[in-house]
Amino acid sequence: MSPLARDAGVARGLRTIEWLKAELLAAVGDLFRGMLRGADDLVLDSLAHIVLVAYLLARRLGYSYTRLDLKVADQVRRHLDAGHEVERWYGDLSALSRHFRDSRREARVGLAEQEGSSL
Q: Which GO molecular function entries does the Swiss-Prot or TrEMBL record give (predicted)?
């Protein structure tokens, strides 16, 4: 690869990261507007966009999706262990931990079913 092509690739990568950062900020703004208006669709779309952009940004920064998943799970455990207020008041971290566990179980079952049907 020529130095010019390499430089162009680096510049494109940096522009992509900056664009994703702007997308993240815009999605947070959309979330706040949706909450202010009581617009459920906008709130959910914005939250989904924030999660999506976080995954894309992690990858552009050199982190795997799996590593991000593991870091999120680790933070859930740490906040549970620390007795985070949201857990004490609502049990949200326990619910999220169960959601992750059940999602992994469903993914394994689905994978096993796919493998079984291909035999």
A: nucleoside triphosphate diphosphatase activity
